[in-house]
Specification:
The chain has 371 residues and is α+β, with helices and mostly antiparallel strands. It is built from 9 helices and 18 strands. The strands form 5 sheets. An 8-stranded mixed β-sheet has the order 1-2-6-3-7-18-8-17, with helices on both faces. A 4-stranded antiparallel β-sheet has the order 12-14-10-15, covered by helices on one side. The longest helix has 22 residues. 46% of the residues are buried.
Length: 371
């Protein structure tokens, strides 16, 4: 990577870090990135509302390749005393999306200056953390006949500067599930005159281990209790409504759907038994992310060609990634570049994206784009 391009990308990364924005609120972030590309490249920049992409049109135009970076931040206070600390209270780039965006921008600089035999689409995607960004950006794949799409995520606990890849499922499917049960209030001294959902909720929780048992599932299945919100803070009133919030997760999407179906079925049975009304709502839905073997092979080969350490991931990450939406539409792969085995973990107060990884990501993307 050219020294000047790295310096521009590093400065950009720190500017993004200082001005983090939550999912679906990335107005400044998007505008700043678009301005950067318009000022430093001759690429076509296409505004799509909450997201955008830049396009390098090759004279040869052999293939249409896309590379994605996520641009949103998370709800976490910036507690580190660094020069580029977040200026937005309660919001920070503690997952490294500032680095992903800067890497893609740096890659765009290199392609704009050096060219490519392929048409290259640089996709800057909003709302990865909530799982709905990629689903909205799928039109890029469909409208431009994208042959292949790639992305990376930085990750702690992996050797520094290493490329980590896996064929097949690399990130689990998951979603947030809220079960709302509503009965009828009564005086606490006469609970039999009301309909209290407490027992139904407790039975739902107690049965969850049976539904997630390895004995009845082919892959890893989890159900994590996030919150139980029941009744009012009034000792004279028997609870009449309650919410049970769960995160359901599975290695395979079909087993996530099966778990959801079984929880809903069990809840409706208990609601009927106890005379309650039951409703369900969902958020932060992520598909399983399944790499295509042909594409992950290119990631491996690119890493080896560059002299990087390439490791096979022994199992999929339990954490989810909305990149899986793209991989339902076309070939592609996501890989992980190591922050270091002892580096602070993402989503922790001590974390800050290592700037040098920008060089690694750009080199990797450039080599993949040549294949």
């Amino acid at each position: 990577m050219k020294t000047n391009n790295f310096e521009l990308a590093r400065r950009l990364r720190r500017e993004l870090h200082q001005n983090p924005e939550l999912s679906n609120q990335e107005c400044w972030t998007k505008k700043h990135l678009m301005n950067f590309l318009n000022s430093n490249t001759s690429l076509e920049v296409v505004d799509k509302g909450k997201w955008f992409y830049a396009l390098y049109k090759s004279e040869k135009g052999n293939r249409n390749l896309a590379f994605r970076a996520d641009i949103d931040a998370i709800k976490m206070e910036e507690s580190m005393a660094i020069p580029h600390a977040s200026k937005n209270p309660g919001v920070s780039h503690k997952c490294g999306h500032d680095g992903h965006a800067a890497s893609l921008a740096g890659f765009a600089l290199e392609i704009d200056q050096n060219g490519s035999d392929n048409n290259i689409f640089f996709l800057f995607q909003h709302a990865e953390e909530t799982g709905d960004g990629a689903e909205q950006c799928i039109e890029l794949i469909r409208e431009n006949d994208i042959d292949e799409i790639f992305a990376y995520h930085n990750m702690s606990g992996m050797p520094y500067n290493s490329v980590n890849i896996k064929d097949g499922t690399i990130n689990c499917a998951s979603k947030g599930m809220t079960i709302h049960l509503e009965g009828a209030p009564s005086h606490a001294s006469e609970p039999e005159k009301g309909k209290n959902p407490a027992l139904a909720i407790s039975k739902i929780v107690s049965i969850l281990p049976e539904l997630t048992s390895p004995a009845v599932n082919k892959g890893m299945v989890l159900c994590t209790v996030i919150q139980i919100d029941l009744g009012e803070k009034a000792f004279g009133v028997s609870a009449s409504k309650g919410d049970l919030r769960l995160t359901i997760r599975a290695l395979y999407e079909d087993e996530l759907n099966k778990l959801q179906y079984n929880i809903e079925k069990m809840t409706l049975f208990l609601a009927y038994h106890y005379g309650l009304e039951a409703t369900f709502s969902y958020n932060d839905s992520f598909p399983e992310t399944t790499n295509h073997d042909e594409s992950s092979a290119k990631v491996r080969l690119a890493g080896i060609d560059l002299g990087l350490d390439v490791f096979e991931m022994p199992e999929a990450f339990r954490g989810s990634e909305d990149f899986g939406h793209y991989l339902k539409e076309t070939k592609g792969a996501i890989c992980y570049i190591g922050n270091g085995t002892d580096y602070p973990h993402v989503h922790s107060h001590e974390y800050d994206f290592p700037d040098e990884l920008i060089k690694t990501a750009v080199r990797l993307f450039k080599r993949i784009s040549e294949m």
